[in-house]
């Protein structure tokens, strides 16, 4: 029986390994993590992450060929293939702070492998890493090798949160990069054999190591670039009376462009896009390519612009001040169908409104009060470090309340900001919400989930990203 060990039981390690276990009954899969709390949750009925379909997959295999453990050394030692799926956050201090990837967790995982291994291993980079990381890992392993043969593969993960199980069951492609030596090719084949249990062969791409590492950064940069492009157009739509939904539809009908990832929004969030682009920018700079670096940097700048443009719009519409006013926030997760708040645009929007002294009341169906308070108290980039390295008990922001009910959150509010596209926000009783709000009652839809015309009929003043402005808003000074 082939044994797989995955270091890192997070959003990627957990679901990916659960699906491998489900699709490959003859493989034993053990997921290990230094966080005892996370492992305990994986072994309980309350999994540590919310992901549609994940519970069923875990229930089918856990205890059969899928195990979760904190005994990192033991399972590394026993494994034939070791996936490393630890976090690779943006550095918060020192050389490259705010840009470069922090490989502390990756390096410590590699050193653990070197310390405890007693037999040959295939080590698979599952985390997103800077191009050329495999070379560094190879050095750490071979300089401590005790005669053991290590083959490093790059197998970046392309799943998106909220659709992780669907994406893993039916991936557009699986990418495996390895050395072009006979041993490297043999290792590629071994990993290919795992995926071949359910992924059609033509969708398994094999490349050299550096192409695989760089493809992951490039794919995320391309995806984020589409969102920044449509968001830049959304600002122009508001200024001219064009409708961004119509523009995106017309543009996306060109088969060379395609319809996906053209939804204008308050800005992209999530643990990957910003971090990976910053990393790409840093690598370009380090390779003496400032023009390429500046090109990609602009994707982040437009994203930051979109978030501050949204806050400015809210404040400007409400007579240039939100001081002391209750503003309801519907949705805090970075997208629907996840409880993940890493880099969610809601953090920046809330901080912006708090900066203007608003009182904020937040409702999200999947995010706890503790998480929200932690996010609002944390410094930029601290979020992606293990919980034990984060501030233990941040002081709660007292102007922020969190409820489990959208109607409670909006009661008595002057304005409502929709920041996550949860389906339930489409079917709320907006007449009831309107009746319980201060007047004039404003809705700022950062995800284009509500029908502005219907809400205007109720009496709301509505702002929808990139849509023709409400006559009320059109009279307001331009927002930059
Ligand atoms: P995560 O923070 O959810 O999980 C990482 C886990 O690794 C944590 O539980 C942490 O405790 C553990 N860990 C850190 N160092 C360890 C060590 N030395 N030994 C054992 N465990 C250790 O992160 P994630 O979202 O799963 O992302 C992991 C990697 O995958 C990152 O590089 C990320 O960029 C990449 N990625 C993420 C996504 C996504 O949607 N989240 C998608 C594709 C790729
Ligand atoms: C992303 C990549 O899609 C995935 O392939 C990679 O493995 C990890 O990073 P994820 O961050 O989980 O996945 O979600 P994604 O669906 O890409 O959304 C990222 C952000 O962009 C979200 O905040 C989302 O709301 C936003 N978005 C997405 C838009 O604003 N408009 C769109 O058209 C699409």
From TrEMBL:
Pathway: Nucleotide-sugar biosynthesis; UDP-alpha-D-glucuronate biosynthesis; UDP-alpha-D-glucuronate from UDP-alpha-D-glucose: step 1/1. InterPro entries: UDP-Glc/GDP-Man, UDP-Glc/GDP-Man_DH_C, UDP-Glc/GDP-Man_DH_dimer, UDP-Glc/GDP-Man_DH_N, UDPglc_DH_euk. Keywords: NAD, Oxidoreductase. One of its GO terms (cellular component) is nucleus. The keyword Chloroplast does not apply. Residues 328-452 form the UDP-glucose/GDP-mannose dehydrogenase C-terminal domain. The keyword Ribosomal protein does not apply. GO terms for biological process: glycosaminoglycan biosynthetic process; UDP-glucuronate biosynthetic process. One of its GO terms (molecular function) is UDP-glucose 6-dehydrogenase activity. It holds the Pfam family UDPG_MGDP_dh_N. It catalyses: UDP-alpha-D-glucose + 2 NAD(+) + H2O = UDP-alpha-D-glucuronate + 2 NADH + 3 H(+). Its EC number is 1.1.1.22. Involved in the biosynthesis of UDP-glucuronic acid (UDP-GlcA), providing nucleotide sugars for cell-wall polymers. NCBIfam families: NDP-sugDHase. Belongs to the UDP-glucose/GDP-mannose dehydrogenase family. This is UDP-glucose 6-dehydrogenase.
